[in-house]
Amino acid sequence: MIVLVEIGGRPYAAQMDEGKDLSLPVRNLNGGIRAFGLGPVEIEPFRVPGFTGSVKEGGSANCDLLSFYPHGNCTHTESIGHITPEQQSVNGIFSRYWFSAALLSIEPEVRGEDHVITKAQLEALTLPKAEALIIRTLPNAADKKERNYSDSNPPYFEPAALAWAAEKGFLHLLCDLPSVDRESDGGRMAAHKAWWCYPEQPRFDASITELIYVPEELPDGFYLLNLQVAPVESDAAPSRPVLYALRTL
């Protein structure tokens, strides 16, 4: 199926059967993604006297109980409710799920023991006008898909970089990091606050998606993004961002 879309007054075509899934799944296998010292995913059959939710164990149907932390066990999308005392569910911020997107690859700058994506790096790039900004960090090792980031001081964003991106009009940020902030930042959450312009001018319709993986074969450029978020009433929920190449007509 080919879909025709108009973005910024220009016509494009997208092949619907060639979307690239950027999500990392919720799974309890050894090597599943983890961060912040959060526990692993637990998936167990529902059990009560006279019934087990496992066909393998003799039950009539499979019925699992899932226990996991969206912030550390899978690709997830966050609302501003992640940093506010008021509850702001990620389930309520989307009125549509298709967006123009710019994919960029950046090697974070080394600052002592830290690796930081800076405002200067973003300013130096040619950014197409888009609604979503997708950052792939370099090197793009395949083990990002099953890495335990806990206590590893992963790369993060300089707050000024995300303040700049917000000023440029990007509404949705996606990255392959466990957090846009430093793993241990004293609770400041400065990059999150810069992105959401909080508390001065809160952007309630903006989102952050973390722990994606962008395949090597996708070149930097302009794309169509389908961002699907699980309907969970919480500050964050598992999500599936899918990227579609655009062909100019």
Mean pLDDT: 96
- Percent of residues in helices comes to 10-25%
CATH superfamily: Putative cyclase
What would you report as the Rg, rounded to the nearest angstrom? 19 Å
For the biggest sheet, the summary is: 7 strands, mixed, barrel
What CATH architecture label applies?
3-Layer(bba) Sandwich
Q: Record the strand order, biggest sheet.
A: 8-15-14-12-9-16-17
Q: What's the multimeric state? A: single chain
Number of strands: 18
The name of the CATH topology is: Glucose Oxidase, domain 1
How much beta, percentage-wise? 25-35%
Q: What pattern of helices and strands is seen along the backbone?
A: EEEEEEEHEEEEHEEHEHEEEE
- Low-pLDDT parts are none
CATH class category label: Alpha Beta
Span between termini: 16 Å
Structure classification: mainly beta
Describe this structure in words.
By secondary structure, the protein is mainly β. The protein has a single domain, classed as Glucose Oxidase, domain 1 (3-Layer(bba) Sandwich), CATH 3.50.30. It has four helices and 18 strands. The strands form five sheets. Strands 8-15-14-12-9-16-17 form a seven-stranded mixed barrel. A three-stranded antiparallel β-sheet has the order 1-2-18, with no helix packed on it. Helix 4 (190-196) links the parallel strand 14 (172-175) and strand 15. The longest helix has 9 residues, at 159-167. It is globular and about 65 Å long. 35% of the residues are buried. The mean pLDDT is 96.
